[in-house]
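User: Hey, quick favor. My workstation is busy. Could you predict this chain's structure for me?
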Amino acid sequence: ASSRPHLMLVDFMGERLAPAQRLEELKTALWLEPTNPLARDLYAKALIERKQSTLAFNELTRSVFYSPSLATHFYLSPRVIPWLSPAERKAVAQGFTLAISHNYPGAVDGLGGFYEAEAQFADEAELYAEAARRANREPQVCERYLLAAGAAYSKSGEYAKAESVLRRASSIDSADVVPYDYLMRFVFTPRNDVKDAQLLVDNGIASGADRYLLYLSLAETARSARDTKAAEAALKNALAARPSSFEAIWRLGSLYLANNQFTQAALWFRKAAELRPDSAAAFFDLALAEESAYDYVAADSAYASALALDPRNSDFKVRYQEFQRRLNASSTKDGS
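Assistant: No problem, here it is.
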């Protein structure tokens, strides 16, 4: 009275099992457990192999309907989805849509993930926007769907729609920093709109949102827009809110390094390394800055520390070896 032995037989025998017998075993498994997604997916696969496409696609739809989750279907991994045929995609989408109409848990996210894997961002955005409208009496659920809709609208290039739904999300809980971060990443950063991003941060702070996290988001938007001064100011404001933040200190060092301000970069990376003496990455970045600032003794020490903390890192090894070769070549030249 269990479907499992029949599925195990099909799996164990593989191609040695005659197609007709395989089909019968899978039919039996489904009769015993009609909602088993693996059994129905294998049954659909067997039907496709026997050229019974119409029946197969109906079974795919039913399988997804009964189990509307990407994780429960072997052909719905992000790597495989793009290889599905148009008919298979249609069958899968119909299964998710049917599950959504029956309010099955996870169905909206399942179809959203399916659209995401297919790069159908406009359809994904509309799906989540409609789900948010239906969930308007559940604030947390509504906000989650609005955030997903905003991200999808942004990926489809519809920034005005993205801004609209994300601002709605921010109004649900004005002290929640996540919608502000989404507005930064998915609206203002693609637009290189530092001015409106700064206004958003001011509004968020006034509403009680975490100023440290807001300033980190603003710094990233400004960095993307190549507004070095605004990025620097935002990171320093983040540090004023949280002086011992490794993240803000490291980002400030990276900003100076990217802008060839090597002495300042070394200063901040040194602070990062002091804050986290077990961070190989901090010492490696410090070494890069020290080398660029021509402080070769300090650079050599920092490279050695990075490798001592992460001896298997091939990038660290190669860079340190190149540094030592250049240093030795320079010493030999000076000596001659």
